[in-house]
Amino acid sequence: PKLGKTTFATSGPTPMVVVACDLGKLSIYPDTPRDQILVLPYQELTREMGDLGTSNPKRDVFTKLMRDLSDIARSIKNGEALKLEDGTEFPIPKTVVLDGFTRLNSMMVDGKLALQNKAYTEDLDKGVRFNFWGKRATDIYTMIQQYASFKACNVVITSWVYSETKTGPDGQSFETGRWLPDIGGKNNLRTAGVVANSLLCDYDSINKRYIVRTKPDTRYDWLGVRDRFNLASEVNVDYIPGQLGPWERIFGKGK
């Protein structure tokens, strides 16, 4: 089976809560017990089509997401069973996966616009618009810091990556050859510095295998795994029945 960032994350210790923000079907690691995973689906769109090709942000998806994230954080912090607003109960998670942080970031933008009864950021006054983006960056970073600070629980944040571009002296844009996590603005690199480990799930087309990149190079200079100095720069994470799963191959047993 394909083994990307979500499949890797769900090979971690259970009980596990997955906040699923990426669109499409959720790929859970084959050997992970399904009754030990609570999936909170947030694939619902946070903008809906309007008339004449316009679109409008929705408030309800955003507010439910933020309440669930707060309830999960409270459960971990207090060492208590998880109780969500809708009545759902689940054991204290050993792993929390915030799956699709690239989209979660855009969900926060849409939600904050909806709370202000605005359709687009361009509808905000220029002075307010600057403050809006600053507050959004601060709120995202606060969320990342809070979840990254938990010691009694593994927290996995997944995102896409994008090719860095800069503007040359001639005013033309060019790609630098560097790839960055797509978290949002200055949080792209700040996030990699806050978390304990930064990995890249990739496919080795030459050897036809799924791998996890663990060490920095010129393209991904933010990669690294804390305290695993002898770890290979590329770890094969193909699914092999009866063998250690991807999580244990990277972090070892009991992590």
Describe, in plain words, how this protein is organized in 3D.
- With about 260 residues, this protein is α/β, with parallel strands linked by helices.
- The chain is about 30% helix and about 25% strand.
- It is built from six helices and 15 strands.
- It has helices at about 5-10, 60-80, 100-115, 125-150, 185-195, 245-250, and strands spanning about 15-20, 35-40, 45-50, 55, 80-85, 90, 95-100, 155, 160-165, 175-180, 195-200, 200-205, 210-215, 225, 235.
- A four-stranded parallel β-sheet has the order 2-1-7-8, covered by helices on one side. It has a three-stranded antiparallel β-sheet with strand order 12-13-15. Strands 3-4 form a two-stranded antiparallel sheet.
Query: Largest sheet, if any?
Result: 4 strands, parallel
Overall average residue pLDDT: 91
Tell me the Rg in angstroms.
Answer: 19 Å
Low-confidence stretches: none
Termini separation: 24 Å
The number of helical runs is 6
Topology:
Blueprint: H1 5-9, E1 16-20, E2 37-41, E3 47-49, E4 55-57, H2 60-78, E5 82-83, E6 89-90, E7 95-99, H3 101-115, H4 126-148, E8 154-157, E9 161-167, E10 173-181, H5 187-194, E11 197-198, E12 200-204, E13 209-213, E14 224-225, E15 234-236, H6 246-251
Parallel strand pairs: 1-2, 1-7, 7-8
Antiparallel strand pairs: 3-4, 5-6, 9-10, 11-14, 12-13, 13-15
Helix pairs in contact: 2-3, 4-5
